[in-house]
Amino acid sequence: MIHEIIKQNSVFSQFIREIRDETIQRDRMRFRRNLERMGEVMAYEVSKTLEYKEVLVTTPLGEAEVQVPVEQPVLCGIMRAALPFHQGFLNYFDQADNAFAAAYRRHHKGGEFEIEVDYISTPSLEGRVLIIVDPMLATGASIEMVYRHLLAKGTPKAVHVVAAIASEDGVKFIRSHFPANTTIWVGAIDKELTAQAYIVPGLGDAGDLAFGRKD
Questions:
Q1: Tens digit of pLDDT per residue, the chain (215 long)?
Q2: At 122, phi and psi to the nearest 5?
Q3: DSSP β-bridge partners for residue 65
Q4: What is the model's pTM?
Q5: How many folded domains does the chain comprise?
Q6: Phi and psi (nearest 5°) for 34?
Q7: pLDDT at position 131, please?
Q8: 113-121 vs 97-107, strand pairing mode
Q9: What is the Cα–Cα distance from 207 to 197, expressed in whole angstroms?
Q10: How far apart are CA 74 and CA 90, in angstroms?
């Protein structure tokens, strides 16, 4: 399944507008906070798909029945751009286990590049709900490669791939390369992907906008 959050009118659209706006983007703190707020909204939406159980809570005046998640998911952020987006999810799934991966594009002359993963830290994923978060879903290759590395720690029972902005090509790639138990959540889907694999209109380099340019 694919969920495009912006298709339903909500305050989420304001966050999308601000992270795209080249003037507002100049405020790094605001950019990071908007990614975090988007993560919070999307975490709430993903939480609706989890399995719940009923527990009894004692209040000062009696007892109440409440539905709570059966288990906490594993949140995996792809550094560095995903850090504020990941934090938004962690604000809501505050007892979740966490995984981190470092994936980047190694560019070659002529504009070609390959994806490299040089760091993975994760708990066991066997039978767990895995949520992979990354602000940008361009080609989908980096998320797919991270997922393949994560499988060394077990097979999840359900996978959620979450991005703030995605390309149509990236969504198609995830659909064709991930298992059937995968759900895709995106803030907005853009039609164009350049030859250099940048999303248009997109928002630019999320990592640079959040943390500064890299050499």
A1: 899 999 999 999 999 999 999 999 999 999 999 999 999 999 999 999 999 999 999 999 999 999 999 999 999 999 989 999 999 999 999 999 999 999 876 666 666 667 788 899 999 999 999 999 999 999 999 999 999 999 999 999 999 999 999 999 999 999 999 999 999 999 999 999 987 888 999 999 999 999 998 87
A2: -155, 150
A3: 56
A4: 0.93
A5: 1
A6: -65, -40
A7: 98
A8: antiparallel
A9: 15
A10: 10
Nearest one of 181, 90, 167, 78 to 122, comparing CA atoms: 78
Assess contact for 98 and 130: CB atoms under 8 A: no
Give the distance from CA 38 to its chain's centroid: 10
Boundaries of domain holding 109? 2-211
CB 204 within 8 A of CB 25: yes
Buried b (16+ CB within 10 A) or exposed e, 135-164: bbbbbbbbbbbbbeebeebbebebbbbbbb
HSE-up of residue 174 (Cα within 13 Å, Cβ side):
28
Tokens of 201: 């209109």
CATH number at 81 reads: 3.40.50.2020
- Tokens 């070659």 identify what position? 108
CA 203 to chain centroid:
16
The first and second tokens of residue 44, run together, are: 């709430």
| Residue reference for tokens 């907005």 | 188
Fill in the amino acid letter for 130: L
* CA–CA separation, 43 and 177 (whole Å): 23
CA–CA distances in Å: residue 140 to residues 106, 165, 175:
15, 12, 10
